[in-house]
């Protein structure tokens, strides 16, 4: 600058100073901003960066399996494909002018492939979300169409379509134990029955997994699952025996169709442990297709429906009277020749009697005899004994919807109410309560807690928890329980009301009931609506199974000894065979015949499986026995409806069995055949043309 004019050189120095000052100020601003971003606000910016480059996935474990007591699956989870879409990726690079046409084209193609409404698909795509379900539980053909549509090698591929595996609950036995098991919603949550009650155990722990994603949001790699238990929920092992459950449901369904009952339930219990072997309820539903079922068919009637028990309550009144020592097994009770007035109300007996023993009170089901026993012991003693048997409170099963029944305190009892409760009116119970209460008689007076879940294991087989047998309380002493059990044997023998419940080869203890129902409109007992039931156990001397059978509003006939007792017999007989219990008088088979004869266990197993109906084999004429003096000629019921045919044959004393639906097309033996009362007649029905 020495050669420059001094004034110009001064100006240059001033400009250089100003420029250096501006550069310094700019550098200071940059350093200050960097300090603020990296130091003062460093944590916030780092968290924002992590959110932008990381993707959080919630790994939902496979829902646990529900097994029966033998390890047979009753509810399993299978993986099915579902279709989702990343609408941002699908519409990337399409300007606003071409967007409507692109949406129309994509929605039409997707809707055609997945059998959906194009308008709904277009609405989902127009939202431009990163994830949207298009169709859950897609078929194999639909998945193949989506794969072809999104293949980059194909002309006009649709990007952003994803095929994802999703768990679906599957019930391999269809309707079997449907109301008990419940169902699972598409999002994997239990909504009814055991699926709801055990939802926390079955669904497992949902774990969060982090990973890096690219600019499109696609996952590149993840940290992986830290806890192996997150891969599967817990497995549940029930006390239910699938074979016994099947027999109970089949026999209950057959009885309901035969007698045109509106509903019914059967409970089978192991008396010494309280384990439930079967919990059947009708009508039922298929949990695989719950959308097409109604609420009534999903109700577990064995634990939710409460009803007046009727004469089954006499067994517990007798136990209370014996415990209070107001009677003895040999004492006579005068039954007023069938009519007794209490508070200006006449109590009637179906079987008119004078002086009879307590055993006969149960055998012929005397209302008057039971009422006198109740009056003799007093309100408080009867109330306390019924409470000890578990009436008026929940059994502790732990399943949602269980009803406690109704047992009013004595201060609310009138004299006639007190008398009625002694023979089963003015009190409400559930089928499960009846089963557990009669189980206490079978278990030497000890009332057990019912067990439905035997054990729970985690996804790798380790025991999480198991349910031990628990005695709730001693309902009556062992001596009283044994005396009542012996008395109940008389119900199924001789002139007892429950002879149809007797299991061949075993001493059977039980009690019938035919309870009138109350009309809600009038508050009075009806003359044409009944609840038929039977409770009992077998073998009487060493009980293996306790069974309670209840049918609501049977129409053809309504007596518990005719409607419910045969169901008890058939379920008990098959259950004992299934458990390997041999009848009295059975002798060991010679060693040489073992393996050559049919295995009873296999024979029972084959019966449990659904089999197509086949026409019965007509016996040869030479094999038929000559008719006796009591034989009757069978009526011709061809062309009649099922109810009319049943009514006609039942009035003659025959036992009809129905095959098919519609009107009777043929019967076997044919009309006019001489048969003994109690003989079975096969009726084959066909729909009307």
- Helix fraction? 25-40%
Average predicted confidence as pLDDT: 84
Strand content: 15-25%
Give the overall shape: elongated
Structural class: alpha+beta
Question: Care to count the β-strands?
Answer: 26
Number of helices: 22
Distance between the termini: 123 Å
Low-confidence stretches: 591-605, 607-625
The whole-angstrom Rg is 37 Å
Give a quick account of the main beta sheet: strands, pairing sense, barrel closure.
Answer: 7 strands, mixed
3D architecture notes:
The protein has 689 residues and is an alpha+beta fold. It is built from 22 helices and 26 strands. α12 (314-323) runs parallel beside α14. The longest helix has 35 residues, at 6-40. Mean pLDDT is 84; it is low at 591-605 and 607-625.
Key descriptive features of the protein:
elongated, 26 strands, 5-stranded antiparallel sheet, alpha+beta, 689 residues
What's the structural blueprint in terms of helices and strands?
Elements: H1 6-40, H2 42-53, E1 54-59, E2 66-67, E3 73-85, H3 87-90, H4 99-114, H5 118-126, E4 132-135, H6 140-149, E5 161-170, H7 178-181, H8 193-197, H9 199-203, E6 207-213, E7 219-222, E8 235-238, H10 242-259, E9 263-270, E10 275-282, H11 301-304, H12 314-323, E11 333-334, E12 339-342, E13 345-348, E14 355-356, H13 358-363, H14 367-377, H15 379-388, H16 415-422, H17 431-442, E15 446-448, E16 453-457, E17 463-466, E18 471-474, H18 478-489, E19 509-518, E20 525-538, E21 545-552, H19 560-563, H20 565-579, H21 600-608, E22 632-633, H22 642-652, E23 655-659, E24 663-668, E25 674-675, E26 680-686
Parallel strand pairs: 2-8, 23-26
Antiparallel strand pairs: 1-6, 2-3, 3-4, 3-5, 6-7, 8-16, 9-10, 9-21, 11-14, 12-13, 15-18, 16-17, 19-20, 20-21, 22-25, 24-26
Helix pairs in contact: 4-5, 4-6, 10-20, 12-14, 12-15, 12-18, 14-16, 20-21
């Amino acid at each position: 600058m020495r050669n420059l004019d001094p004034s110009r050189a001064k100006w240059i120095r001033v400009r250089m100073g100003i420029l250096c000052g501006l550069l310094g100020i700019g550098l200071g601003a940059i350093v200050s901003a960097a300090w603020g971003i990296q130091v003062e606000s460093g944590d916030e910016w780092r968290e924002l960066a992590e959110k932008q480059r990381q993707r959080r996935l919630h790994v939902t474990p496979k829902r646990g399996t529900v097994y029966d007591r033998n390890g047979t699956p009753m509810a399993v989870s299978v993986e099915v494909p579902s279709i989702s879409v990343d609408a941002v990726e699908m519409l990337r690079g399409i300007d606003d002018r071409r967007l409507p046409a692109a949406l129309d084209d994509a929605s039409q193609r997707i809707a055609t492939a997945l059998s959906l409404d194009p308008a709904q698909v277009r609405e989902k795509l127009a939202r431009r979300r990163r994830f949207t379900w298009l169709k859950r539980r897609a078929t194999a053909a639909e998945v193949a169409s989506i794969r072809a549509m999104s293949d980059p090698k194909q002309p006009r591929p649709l990007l952003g379509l994803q095929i994802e595996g999703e768990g679906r609950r599957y019930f391999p036995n269809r309707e079997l134990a449907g109301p008990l098991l419940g169902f699972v919603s598409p999002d994997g949550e239990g909504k009814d029955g055991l699926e709801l009650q055990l939802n926390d155990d079955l669904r497992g722990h949902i774990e969060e997994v982090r990973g890096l994603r690219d600019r499109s949001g696609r996952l590149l790699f993840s940290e992986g699952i830290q806890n192996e238990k997150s891969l599967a929920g817990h497995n549940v092992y029930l006390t239910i025996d699938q074979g016994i459950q099947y027999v109970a449901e089949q026999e209950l369904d057959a009885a309901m169709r035969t007698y045109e009952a509106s509903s019914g339930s059967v409970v089978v219990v192991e008396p010494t442990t309280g384990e439930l072997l079967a919990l059947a309820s009708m009508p039922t539903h298929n949990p695989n297709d719950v959308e097409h079922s109604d609420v009534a068919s999903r109700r577990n009637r064995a634990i939710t429906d409460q009803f007046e028990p009727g004469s089954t309550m006499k067994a517990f009144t007798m136990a209370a009277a014996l415990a209070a020592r107001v009677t003895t097994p040999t004492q006579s009770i005068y039954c007023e020749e069938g009519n007794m007035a209490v508070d200006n109300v006449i109590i009637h007996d179906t079987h008119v009697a004078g002086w009879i023993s307590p055993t006969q009170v149960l055998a012929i089901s005397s209302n008057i005899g039971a009422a006198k026993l109740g009056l003799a012991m007093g309100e408080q003693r009867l109330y306390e004994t019924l409470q000890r048997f578990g009436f008026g409170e929940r059994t502790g099963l732990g399943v949602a919807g269980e009803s406690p029944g109704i047992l009013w305190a004595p201060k609310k009892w009138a004299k006639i109410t007190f008398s009625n409760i002694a023979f089963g009116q003015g009190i409400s119970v559930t089928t499960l309560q009846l089963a557990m209460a009669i189980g206490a008689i079978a278990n030497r007076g000890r009332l057990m807690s019912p067990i439905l879940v035997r054990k729970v294991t985690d996804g790798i087989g380790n025991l999480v928890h198991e349910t031990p047998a628990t005695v709730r309380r001693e309902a009556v002493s062992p001596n009283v329980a044994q005396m009542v059990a012996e008395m109940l044997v008389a119900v199924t023998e001789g002139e007892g009301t429950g002879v149809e419940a007797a299991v061949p080869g075993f001493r059977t203890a039980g009690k019938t009931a035919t309870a009138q129902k109350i009309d809600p409109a009038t508050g009075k007992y009806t003359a044409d609506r009944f609840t038929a039931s039977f409770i009992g156990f077998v073998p009487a001397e060493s009980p293996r199974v306790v069974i309670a059978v209840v049918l609501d509003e049977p129409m053809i006939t309504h007596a518990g000894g005719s409607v419910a007792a045969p169901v008890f017999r058939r379920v008990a007989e098959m259950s004992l065979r299934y458990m390997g219990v041999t009848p009295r008088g059975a002798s060991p088979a010679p060693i040489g015949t073992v393996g050559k004869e049919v295995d009873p266990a296999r024979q029972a197993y084959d019966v449990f499986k659904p089999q197509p109906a086949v026409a019965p084999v007509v016996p040869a004429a030479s094999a038929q026995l000559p008719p006796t003096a009591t034989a009757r000629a069978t009526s011709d019921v061809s062309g009649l409806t099922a109810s009319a045919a049943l009514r006609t044959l039942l009035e003659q004393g025959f036992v009809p069995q129905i095959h098919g639906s519609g009107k009777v097309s043929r019967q076997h033996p044919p009309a006019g055949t001489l048969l003994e009362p109690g003989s079975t007649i096969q009726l084959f029905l066909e729909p009307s043309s």
